[in-house]
Amino acid sequence: MEAKNEPAQRTTDAARPRLSIVVPLFNEAESLGVLVGEIDAAAALIGASHEIIFVNDGSTDGSQAALTAIAQARPNVRLIEFRRNFGKAAALDAGFRAASGDVVFTMDADLQDDPAEMAKFLARLDEGFDVVSGWKQRRQDPLDKTAPSKIFNAVVSRVSGVRLNDFNCGFKAYRAEALDDLALYGELHRFIPVLLHWRGFRIGEVAVNHRARRFGRSKFGASRLFKGALDLATVILNTRYQTRPLHVFGLAGAVLGACGFLILSYLTVLWFAGAGPIGDRPLFFLGILLAVSSLQFFTVGLLGEFIQRQASGGRPQWTVRSTVNVASGAALAPEIRRLRQAAALLRDADHSNGPRSWPQTPPSGATPPSDTGENTRTAIRSSA
User: Counting C-beta atoms within 10 Å of the first and last residue's C-beta, which end of the chain has fewer, N or C?
Assistant: First the structure.
């Protein structure tokens, strides 16, 4: 199954499930049957219709065969198989695009997340939160996995301003509208709460029961820390400075330029004071380097501003929670752009034709010259 490039249209018929549970997996064949049974039991206790979307991220252990058998026996189980291992972020992105429920859950396939906890998430959503993240307060993992995770969580919480205790927990619940236009790639799945927080959605947290792994082995590696640090820098740039790149590059350029100016000013004073030549001093070359680097940072910032302006395409950089007697911003913006484009076409058509020499009512039997502008306006009015 191939994921769509645009957000999935959420149906409004009565058959639509209330809950969508997205489960990315890689080599978890032994746990799949148990997990489906637990999810079905938890959804039955809640009393909500549900669908389970498994995204097989290039498994090589027989997970696909197990999932195919489960999907054939259960119509509410859907399956997406990747051609190779693309990573958890890509698997979640594909699952989000296929989900049709009002609330979308994510959980891992290793049975460490307890589906019976879903009622807690729904209760927190009912309190007004748009995203609820799980907190593995008592982790059933070895120290070499929990210690780096605690450091990572503390740094991300401090830098991003999102006060969560556990960013690495894969057990989360989202309102469906929070996932519209959310694009995931690389390792950004750990920063979904940060990305949604900067779009204005309310982020909550709930403590969950974390269980020990029963089958398979952990996919955790030390490289995740290095990748996480780089991805954190990407997230900060894409949230705080996405629409104003000159602020970050300009600040760096201003600092470097100030240091270079002070160094060169100091050497200039020494030269006027008769301290000898300054052109062969290392400090002189450092000042020149800082000055040139400052100019380069400013140039990069300006180029970023131009690129951002062109790439945005007039898309709004805000999200709407609710409206009263006003069309929603998401529906209004395309209509405004369409009307502006139509007006621009009318102006261009009038300018290209120049002044009219043919009378409004041509003589009988005469054929008026072709009028591209008039045809254009007629086509626009009919399409509008």
Answer: C
Find, among 315, 317, 312, the residue nearest to 336 by Cα: 315
pLDDT at 16: 59
Residue type, 217: R
Query: What mean pLDDT comes out for the span 252-278?
Result: 89
Query: What does the mean pLDDT of the chain come to?
Result: 79
Residue extents of the structural domains in the chain: 19-239, 245-312
- pLDDT for the residue numbered 327: 54
* Weakest-pLDDT range from 210-219, 285-294, 348-357: 348-357
pTM score of the predicted model: 0.66
Instruction: Say which CATH topology domain 19-239 has.
Output: Spore Coat Polysaccharide Biosynthesis Protein SpsA; Chain A (3.90.550)
Contacts of 73 (CB under 8 A, 6+ apart): none
The pair of structure tokens assigned to 376 is: 């254009």
User: Both tokens of residue 323?
Assistant: 């409206």
Strands 103-106 and 19-25: parallel
CA torsion sign for 332, 337, 343, 349 is: negative
Measured CA to CA, the distance from residue 50 to residue 99 in angstroms comes to 10
